[in-house]
Amino acid sequence: MVTHPGFHLAMAKAGVGTQTMRFLEVTGRAVYGRDGSCMQTLDLPQRLVAWGQIHAFLAGHLRSTRILSGRALTHFRQDEAGVTAFLEGGGELEGDLLVGADGLRSKVRELLGIAQKPLYAGYVAWRGLVDERALPAGSREDLMSRFTFGFPPGEQILGYPVIGRGVSSPGVRRFLNYVWYRPVSRHRTLADMLTGSDGNQYHDGIPPKLLRPDILAEIRADAAKVLPPQFADAVAGTAHPLLQPIFDFAAPAMTFGRVALIGDAAFVARPHCGMGVTKALEDAVALSEAFSNGSLPVAQALARYGAVRLETGRALVRHAQELGNCIAQTPVEVETVQAEVDHLIRNVAVAPAAPPARAS
To answer: What does the CA dihedral 7, 27, 271, 151 come to, rounded to 10 degrees?
Structure first.
């Protein structure tokens, strides 16, 4: 993930400093054309960190007795005295409030009876992780020091370096993480693409190893036809790419009695923003601060939280939709979008940016 100031602030408020985290730093951004030439650059230093590292840091600051793994929520009951959560296989937990931090397909949101469902945006993201050593030398040099982009007509691909698991500095082992946004092709349907080699149809995303050979061959062939060659090398070097349908979702509210929603359980912004983790962390900070006055009743404190974060969530969803407008659905849209992208590449101002401040 890309770190933002809100990330460092939230981690500090949680009592977890980021000074000892391992970051990868990129010097800026670059756009590559279909022929592999660099069409534009922008000086924009940024710091990247692995989500698994954040999760481990946070979990390490909690007592193990406070984490129950593999215990799914089945239902809950709330009244004036508190909330009782009932768990799969028996057992229950009691508390003053219930926080639904359970993502796109939130069980808590479902149990609240919210009618809105995540809405498919009309395109998918192909994601891959490639060891930099598997890339040809030229592609490795172009893709591993900056945030990089390509804009095939009606599509978008971006890439950035990430740190490999279980490797400590010095001698960091790096991987290229790429995300290729594209509409579902006309001779395919999303349901067809999500039907695995085992014959089962998956609804939200298919296990990468179950992608059918014909789908995999098609995506590699398309990469060679439409992508900058550096990115085509990356796709060719991915044994099991991840297919992710893109969704929008905005909850009508973030609090319901003694129940609060945070993160993707409340708002799902398309990944173009690069704000998913930071948004969830900022929700958590706002929820904590809403209870900083211990004399407030739970419902009143939750209402304060919702008032602070509701419009932020809505604004992020709208912004991500605007950024996703370059992913075209029809030939007319492709022509219009390509003209806009060409204009952007030719006229963007290249302004150096100061390195981001390190958390103190």
So the answer is: 170
**In terms of C-beta density within 10 A (0-12 exposed, 13-18 middle, 19 or more buried), how is residue 89 classed?**
exposed
Of the chain, the percentage scoring pLDDT greater than 70 comes to 88
Q: The dihedral of CA 222, 224, 230, 235: what is its sign?
A: positive
What pLDDT digit, counting tens, does each position of 135-166 carry? 999 999 999 999 999 999 999 999 999 887 64
Nearest to 178 by CA among 216, 137, 232, 222: 232
Q: Indicate the angle between helix axes 276-290 and 298-323, nearest 10 degrees.
A: 160
The DSSP secondary-structure symbol of 203 reads: S
95 phi and psi angles, rounded to 5 deg: -160, 180
Which pTM was predicted? 0.84
Instruction: Compute φ and ψ for 296, nearest 5 degrees.
Output: -75, 135
Q: Annotate 214-227 with DSSP letters as a single string.
A: HHHHHHHHHHHHHS
pLDDT of residue 62: 80
In the chain, what is the straight-line distance between the N-terminal and C-terminal CA atoms, in Å? 20
User: What 8-state DSSP symbol labels residue 242?
Assistant: E
Residue 170: is the preceding peptide bond cis (ω within 30°)?
Answer: yes
Token pair in block for residue 348: 């963007």
Q: Kindly give the interhelix angle for 276-290 and 5-13, rounded to the nearest 10 degrees.
A: 40
The two beta strands, 259-261 and 174-183, are: unpaired
Return the axis-axis angle of helices 213-226 and 229-236, rounded to nearest 10°: 160
Buried-exposed string 32-58: b where 16+ CB fall within 10 A, e elsewhere:
bebebeebbebebebbbbbeebbeebe
DSSP label of 2:
B
Average pLDDT over residues 92-118: 94
